[in-house]
Amino acid sequence: MMDADLALQKAIYARLADDAALAAFVGARIYDNVPGDTGFPYLTLGEATVDDWSDGGAAGAEHRLAFNAYTRGGGRAEAKAIMGAVNAALHDADLTLDGHHLVNLRFIAAETRREADGATWRGTIRFRAVTERITA
After folding, report:
1. How far is CA 19 from CA 27, 40, 98, 131, in A?
2. Which uninterrupted H or E stretch holds 47?
3. Predicted confidence band at 53 (pLDDT cuts at 50, 70, 90)?
4. Which residue segment(s) compose the domain that 52 sits in?
5. CATH number, domain at 108?
6. What are phi and psi of 116, to 5 degrees?
7. Among 130, 16, 11, CA closest to 83
8. Distance CA 94, CA 15 (A)
9. Which pLDDT tens digit goes with each residue over 74-86?
10. Which residues are within 8 A (CB) of 24 and not within 5 positions of it... i.e. 6 or more apart?
11. Phi/psi class of residue 99: alpha, beta or left (left: φ > 0; alpha: ψ in -120 to 50)?
12. Which residues contact 18 (CB under 8 A, 6 or more apart)?
């Protein structure tokens, strides 16, 4: 299952990094690990969980993924716009995964909130995906 999770992460990152609408907001600032000197706004690959979704004939996995948009100058509206671009790029996307088939990738929830520093807004958008291992 973990190889499916990594294959999904790579395909999602490639899709987001190649998305012009998202780049208009964050440029190339899409991170798994955020460098210490990163400017705002930026997007992070957030929490990810994977559960067994196998049936009698195919090995499968259910993935729950979160992405976090961080902004300062643009506030809540900018965080929502970034999440909108992420949703447009990923909801029902037809992604190619190494060794796995993406059955579906769907938006499930979003939220925005001000961080404890009082200046940063974080928008979190969540997705659910199902993958199946490709067998030869």
Report:
1. 10, 18, 20, 22
2. strand 42-52
3. confident
4. 2-133
5. 3.30.2000.30
6. -60, -25
7. 16
8. 10
9. 889 999 999 999 9
10. 85
11. left
12. none
Closest CA to 12 of 91, 112, 79: 91
Cα(44)–Cα(70) distance, integer angstroms: 8
Question: What is d(CA 46, CA 35) in angstroms, rounded to the nearest whole number?
Answer: 15
Q: Residue 97: what pLDDT? A: 97
Amino acid at residue number 97 = L
Longest dimension (CA), the chain: 53
Residues in the chain: 136
Number of domains present in the structure of the chain: 1
d(CA 21, CA 8): 21
Q: d(Cα 66, Cα 88) in Å, to the nearest integer?
A: 15
Write out the two tokens for 52. Answer: 């067994």
